[in-house]
Amino acid sequence: MVAIRLEELCKYYKRGSEIIRALDGVTLDIDRGEFVAVVGRSGSGKTTMLDLIGLLLRPTSGRLIIDDVDTAKLSDADRAHMRALKVGFVFQEYNLLPGLNVLENVMLPLRYVKKTDDGRAHALELLERVDLTDRIKHRPSELSGGQQQRVAIARSMINRPSLILLDEPTGAVDTETAEQLVALLKRLNREDQVTIIVVTHDLDLAAHASRQIRLKDGKVLADERVGAVPVA
Amino acid sequence: MEMLRNIARRKLRSVLTISGIVIGILALTTMGAIAENFNALLDGGVKFYSSNILVGPPDGQSASLLPTSKIDEIKQVHGVAAAFPGYQFPAKPGAVSVVSFGLPDEILAGDPAENDWGQLKLTTSAGHYLTGAAGEVVLGDTIDKEFHKKVGDTIELPVRPSDAKPDFVNHTFTVAGILNVTRTAPDTFAYINIADGQMLLKDSLPIAIRSQIDTSQITEAIDVYGARGTSISQLDALADRINAQVTGVKAIRPSVIVNSFKSGGAIFTAITTAAALLALIIGGLSVVNTMFMAVAERVREIGLKKAVGATTRNIMGEFLLEATFIGALGGVIGYGLGVLITVIANGTTPPGQSTLFLITIRLTALSLGFAIALGAVAGILPAWRAATLDPVTALRNE
Q: What CA–CA distance (Å, rounded) separates B240 from B136?
């Protein structure tokens, strides 16, 4: 079942008189529950593709359809609403708010959606899943890099999104922590049937994905399924 | 909660910013309290003179004396409903006048019935108003506090100066009542009856002519009233008719006196406005600066919030709320300090001197409302800048 469809998706930037084709006519489908690794050199368009799928950027041309919704027709407020409900983000630098404790950071996205269920209970449940129950009152500065990234992953799950986007999630942690994070992502992917798209230079991480998309100069150079087929 | 943490995150900067607003609102509160006090004084004048016509001697006559027969002549003018004689004397003759926002102590003699005609109604906090009996006095609130009198006590009026000549004359009056606070002229006045006023008038005349003048036939001024509900423009027209029909008097148009009071009030309103502008400049700029710095420091945070679903409106609201809170906090502290200063200053004013400050509900609303509005307005630009940040750029800001 197709969760995300990119049709001739382009993103161009202007730098002086030069046109930078960050993403240049990418067409692909991503099924629900896939674990996709997007790889490629710096400047290949990985992050631009992630930002487009995450509705942080608007494409120059082409179509992006998420859960059968043509995102081109959405207003900025609707895009924000869709981001809040359907997309979870995890960044290389964690991007936790220093003024909030672990629990508050995880609950941050709840502020921007109207939900009736108990967000706190869900946040505590997520923190238990990422093994940080004993750190809920700690500030980000009191945590290791790996712990901060696990908080970021828990935060990305708080609104029960169907899609999690990760931008170099293991880029700032050591090898052992990176392996723990990969295991965690695989578990979330398997248990929650969440579609995961991870942009990475880390080939070890990419090797755990069920599908690898290699970009070069804004185009898809290779697209191969290397693991199990998606669960849904 | 996050807002408080954000403010507390840069303690010194926040304290300095809030201090800027505190100073501005403190200035607004204290200056405004002076203006309110003065305006209350002037409002009393406006109230009094917008309901009657003051009739005095014609231009060129040096002595402020009129025959009481003029009262009957004036009563014949169409539109005149009542006319009363009036006398006024300094309560403390020879006293050195000091710089004061209040009026000097005066003795006013008049018909007790006049109190039913004017817009400025005098009511007593103790005892009763004048009954017409000789030798009774009703004291205004300030003059009563000055002389520490209660109903039934006696008071010598006018007050004998320390360097009084041997021929200085004063009389003993019994305090019949004490007036409620009016915050205007009556507070420093001692009210006596007409006959006693005529007695004091006689005392004030030069010895050489004192015995030749029957002061019961003389008044210093005449207060003229139209029918109840007569407008100020109708009173102006009535004053013109008095001037046209009664010789040897000059009726002053009430609007002339009222306008002079109002123009005096306008000066103090200008002082309040200047204080408000001062608050705007000092406090507003510091809030703008602080909020811009907060936006610059929190670019990634803003990017993240947008990434997790915050709309432009959400971000704008968060920063505006923070700026408004800073304004409100500074406003409450500044207003509180201002009230404290005015209470201490009023409390230490010597008895008999008018207090300088008056805190009103209007001033409270202005000070706090202004502080809150200041914070909100000062926060608009920084909040807009934060809300319109490109999330992709913001997220990867170094």
A: 36
Unique residue bearing structure tokens 């505006």: B320
Q: How confident is the model at residue B97 (pLDDT cuts 50, 70, 90)?
A: low
- What residue ranges do the domains of chain A occupy? 2-95+160-225
Measured in whole angstroms, how far is the alpha carbon of residue A229 from the centre of its chain? 19
Q: Are B7 and B324 in contact (CB under 8 A)?
A: no
Of the candidates B367, B344, B365, the residue with the CA atom closest to the CA atom of residue B355: B344
Cα separation of the two ends of chain B: 26
What residue of B is the nearest CA neighbor of A114?
B309
Find chain B residues with C-beta within 8 A of A108's C-beta: 305, 308
How far is Cα B351 from Cα B8, in angstroms, rounded to an integer?
46
**CATH class entry, domain A2-95+160-225:** alpha beta
Average pLDDT over residues B198-218: 86
Q: How many CB atoms lie within 10 A of CB A202?
A: 18
Angle at B219 between CA B213 and CA B222, to 5 degrees: 165
Task: Provide CB contacts within 8 A for A101, sequence distance 6+.
Answer: A136, A137, A138, A139
Q: Model confidence over B310-334: pLDDT tens digits?
A: 999 999 999 899 889 989 999 999 9
Residue B196: the pLDDT is: 93
Query: DSSP assignment of B303-359, as one string?
Result: HHHHHTT--HHHHHHHHHHHHHHHHHHHHHHHHHHHHHHHHHHHHTSPTTSPPS---
Q: DSSP state, B269? A: H
Annotated domain spans of chain B: 2-43+261-395, 58-248
The three-state secondary structure class of A98 is: coil
Note whether B63 contacts A: Cβ–Cβ < 8 A. Answer: no
Q: What is the ipTM of this complex?
A: 0.89
Find out whether B192 and B109 touch, Cβ atoms under 8 Å. Answer: yes
User: Which pair of tokens denotes residue A180?
Assistant: 């723990």
Which residues of chain B does A104 touch, with a Cβ-Cβ cutoff of 8 Å? 2
Among B124, B185, B177, B171, residue whose Cα is nearest residue B150? B177
* Helix, strand, coil % in chain A, rounded to nearest 5: 35, 30, 35
Tell whether B305 is within 8 A of chain A (Cβ): yes
Both tokens of B172, joined, read 């003993």
Whole-prediction pTM value?
0.74
pLDDT digits (tens, 9 = 90+) for A144-183: 988 998 999 999 989 889 999 999 888 777 888 888 888 8
